[in-house]
Specification:
The structure holds two protein chains of two kinds. Chain A is built from six helices and four strands, in the order H-H-H-E-H-E-H-E-H-E. By secondary structure, chain A is α+β, with helices and mostly antiparallel strands. In chain A, strands 1-4-2-3 form a four-stranded mixed sheet. In chain A, strand 2, helix 5 and strand 3 form a beta-alpha-beta unit. The longest helix of chain A has 21 residues. The N and C termini of chain A lie far apart (35 Å). The N terminus of chain A is likely disordered. Chain B is mainly beta. Chain B has four helices and 31 strands. The chains are: A alpha+beta, B mainly beta. Chains A and B meet through helix 1, helix 5 and strand 3 of A and strand 15 and strand 23 of B. Chain A: It is found in: Cell outer membrane. Chain A: It is a lipid-anchor. Chain A: This is Peptidoglycan-associated lipoprotein.
């Protein structure tokens, strides 16, 4: 039986897009050190205290916006978060972003992929309207395939109905 | 008389022919599947006769699989061998009908197995015990034989069971078929998925992909040799076609920056309908699988997905939220005006056209519950077959009488597994898989 030989490549590719992968923080740390030459002494480059780091983007700016059931309309809170993301992307112009759209488990697999696509696109269109170049922003939907919360209750569903802006340093993308 | 009536009795009658007095029996042995109050028909299937030295174990095993197939439909009930009065010691000896009648076996299945090297030959006959006659097929054929390899012995058992099922129900069989599905392990927030193919009853399972990337919704080709599915292996959802025999796969063409998913073959196997999501909008396209050329079939700002061809290839049923919530629509296979067919309460998705052409199976979401249901193509006679926290993704058995689907259980420890149910709503039961399962697709009957 023939085996599928590309699986390790696939795992690597997924790891690169995963925001919690330690290798990415390592790579970004170097990028942050270069880009952040003017940062005050005492800030660890690449840490959440370094405003040019992806960790800062995730934690201080906020890398995700949430949606109401079956909706892809941005909330006021979501727009405020995205304004912060836009400002960060304008200040860190060597970064690109993949916006990941997600849905909760209520709904069919196919519909939820399409719905996640709508959500990711709503974020992308908003960022473009605020001045980010379209060429820096890609979208993908995972539908209901990648929940972060696993209970079957609204408290979890609310966190799963999300669009997450995942940064990719300019050096990492061709 | 039996053979004449076999062809005449169609769906709709609602009688189970119970055991009748010896001479007064006027009706043939027959189960009408649509009958909602059906009692399983008692049958006996003694171990088949080994006609060569090496055939002993297979003669026992094949009879077991025949019995499991028939019993698994919920339409038949096996009488245990411990109740037998007669034994069958010669495939060609006259049947002692009185002995089988005495234990209320309405049908008797006998068979013989011959093994030569790696070749197996299986013969069988079916008897209508209460009329004292051999039960023939619609063309008047009685005993049949099937040949194959020792490794493929289960398929010969399934073929025998299909023939018995057809003679007694008047319907096509579905046992000699396979299911491709997504095999799942791990918790909800770290679910590992890989494609697997197995016999309809869970035997002979084989994995088709590794679990390194998300795979979704495999769909058999009309000839059962290829599978379309969606994979994230490139980083973005794309459609792949995989040859089951060689496990070679290739990506179908898709535009940069788009997501392609929900593919399904046309009845000719030459065309693929699928969803393409671009700029947040999802529409249905059709692609010539050889040239890779796509044609857009829907053009609205709504989500259009889950397309499925009619058996004659002329129409497509699909899901759209153009009305404000997901509903089912039918349009010509070349695109054009779509007609809404679902009007009940709730949200409808994943429509699949029955291989008989008479019904659409679907997923329905209503009041926090999910259902698998069927309706006619004009939306009438909607019937919900299941209800649970999350039932989804129906697929039809080759004879259009049974539906398989996935059921996900509730909560943090939730997992997904495969179930099947009759279109009457009877005989809901789990399908045996070694891990969790989702997105089943039932093959046509094998050659």
């Amino acid at each position: 039986m023939k085996r599928i030989l590309t699986s390790t490549l696939l795992i690597s590719a997924l790891a690169v897009s995963a925001c919690t992968n330690p290798d990415r923080f390592g790579a970004d740390g170097m990028g942050g050190a270069n880009a952040g030459a003017g940062v005050n002494a005492g800030v660890v480059p690449g840490s959440a205290n370094d405003p040019t780091s992806t960790a800062y983007f995730q934690q201080a700016v906020g890398d995700r916006v949430l949606f109401l059931v079956d909706q892809s309309t941005l909330t006021d809170e979501g727009r405020a978060t995205l304004d912060g993301q836009v400002a960060w992307l304008q200040a860190n112009s060597d970064y690109q972003a993949v916006i990941e759209g997600h849905a909760d488990e209520q709904g069919t697999r196919e519909y939820n992929i399409a719905l996640g696509g709508r959500r990711a696109n709503a974020v992308r269109e908003y960022m473009i309207s605020r001045g980010i170049a379209a060429s820096r922003l890609k979208t993908i939907s995972y539908g209901k395939e990648r929940p972060i919360e696993i209970c079957s209750a609204e408290a979890c569903y609310a966190k799963n109905r999300r669009a997450v802006t995942v940064l990719a340093g300019g050096a990492l993308t061709s | 008389m039996l053979t004449r009536l076999l062809g005449l009795l169609a769906l709709g009658a609602a009688t189970v022919f119970a055991a009748a007095p010896d001479t007064a029996r006027a009706e043939p042995l027959r189960i009408v599947i649509d009958d909602p109050t059906i009692e399983p028909l008692p049958f006996a299937v003694p171990s088949f006769q080994p006609e060569s030295g090496e055939a002993g174990q297979l003669a026992v095993d094949i009879a077991r699989v025949v019995s499991d197939d028939l019993t698994g439909t919920g339409l038949f009930r096996e009488i245990p061998a411990s109740a037998y009065i007669s034994t069958v010691s010669d495939f060609n000896a006259p049947v002692e009908y009185a002995d089988w009648k005495a234990i209320n076996a309405q049908a008797l299945i006998t068979g013989a197995v011959n093994v030569t090297g790696n070749s197996v030959n299986v013969k069988f006959r079916v008897y209508d015990v209460f009329s004292g006659e051999e039960l023939l097929d619609a063309s008047g054929q009685g005993g049949l034989q099937f040949s194959g390899t020792v490794d493929g012995w289960r398929r010969m058992a399934h073929k025998v069971a299909d023939a018995v099922y057809s003679r007694i129900t008047g319907e096509g069989g579905y046992f000699d078929s396979r299911v491709v599905f997504v095999s799942e392990t791990g918790p909800k927030d770290n679910r590992q998925k890989r494609l697997a193919v197995m016999d309809y009853d869970g035997a002979n399972l084989k994995y088709l992909t590794e679990s390194g990337s998300i795979v979704l919704a495999p769909r058999f080709s009309p000839s059962g040799d290829r599978v379309l599915y969606t994979s994230y292996e490139s980083g973005f959802p794309r459609i792949y076609v995989l040859d089951i025999g060689t496990v070679q796969r290739r990506a179908l063409q898709s535009a940069e920056g788009s997501m392609a998913f929900a593919p399904r073959f046309s009845p000719s196997g030459q065309t693929v309908v699928y969803s393409l999501s671009q700029g947040g909008n999802t529409d249905i396209y059709s692609m010539d699988i050889n040239s890779g050329q796509s044609v857009r079939l829907t053009n609205t700002p709504a989500i259009e997905t889950a397309p499925s061809f009619s058996p004659d290839g002329s129409q497509i049923v699909f899901e759209s939220d153009r009305s404000g919530s997901p509903q089912l629509y039918v349009m010509p296979a070349t695109g054009g005006e779509a007609t809404r067919i679902s009007f009940g309460e709730g949200r409808y998705g994943t429509p699949v056209w029955s291989p008989r052409g008479d019904l659409v199976a679907f997923t329905k979401q209503n009041k926090g519950r999910f259902h698998i249901g069927v309706m006619r193509l004009d939306g009438s006679e909607e019937r919900l077959l299941t209800a649970s926290f999350l039932d989804e993704g129906p697929t039809w058995a080759p004879n259009g009488r049974v539906i398989m689907f996935a059921r996900e259980t509730q909560g943090a420890g939730g997992s997904s597994s495969l179930y099947s149910v009759d279109i009457s709503g009877r005989n809901l039961k789990p399908v045996r898989t070694p891990e969790g399962g989702s997105d089943p697709s039932w093959s046509p009957l094998q050659d």
